[in-house]
């Protein structure tokens, strides 16, 4: 597929960008990790049977909760456009980028997510638009490119 272009003139929807499959999988796996690690912590043999002490069991349950927190963070990935720009919330950190700073939007074949190319030559990943979402991810990348294009006509 060719890269997404910001040539569109239609002002796209200001609805937030979110990965559907990524959010669902992360949410399901977060619940599974808490349940699985808690059950394992409860079912492992005790000290009198050559197994774990209470601290080991607590650490096993905390490991499941820690994994669930990371997965919850993955489920929270989004990009929220507004009239002034777009706020990109990736796995680590978030950032507001003014429309004027964005020079290009790409979503090349093989890229796991869309990218914003900025005037200062920096590239920012938009993890909310993920290839795992299939054809809808391409449409979302085009909607983002349309928003960037529309911001150029407003200047």
Flag low-confidence runs.
5-11
* Global structural class: alpha+beta
Strand content: 15-25%
Quick check: average pLDDT?
A: 89
Shape: elongated
Separation of the first and last Cα atoms: 30 Å
Quantity of strands, as a count:
6
User: From N to C, what is the helix and strand string?
Assistant: HHEEEEEEH
- The percentage helix is 40-55%
What is the topology, as strand order, of the major beta sheet? 1-2-3
Radius of gyration: 21 Å
The major β-sheet equals: 3 strands, antiparallel
Count of separate DSSP helical elements: 3
Explain what you see.
By secondary structure, this protein is of the alpha+beta class. 43% of the residues lie in helices and 21% in strands. Strands 1-2-3 form a 3-stranded antiparallel beta sheet, with no helix packed on it. A 3-stranded antiparallel beta sheet has the order 4-5-6, covered by helices on one side. It is elongated.
């Amino acid at each position: 597929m060719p890269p997404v272009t910001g040539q569109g003139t239609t002002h796209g929807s200001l609805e937030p960008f979110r990965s559907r499959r990524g959010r669902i999988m992360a949410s399901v796996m977060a619940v599974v990790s808490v349940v699985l690690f808690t059950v394992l912590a409860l079912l492992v043999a005790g000290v009198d049977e050559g197994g774990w002490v209470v601290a080991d069991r607590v650490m096993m349950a905390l490991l499941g909760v820690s994994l669930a927190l990371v997965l919850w963070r993955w489920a929270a990935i989004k990009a929220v456009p507004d009239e002034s720009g777009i706020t990109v919330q990736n796995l680590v950190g978030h950032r507001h980028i003014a429309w004027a700073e964005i020079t290009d939007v790409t979503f090349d074949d093989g890229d796991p997510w869309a990218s914003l190319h900025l005037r200062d030559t920096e590239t920012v990943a938009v993890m909310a638009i993920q290839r795992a979402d299939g054809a809808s991810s391409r449409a979302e990348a085009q909607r983002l490119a349309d928003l960037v294009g529309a911001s150029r006509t407003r200047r």
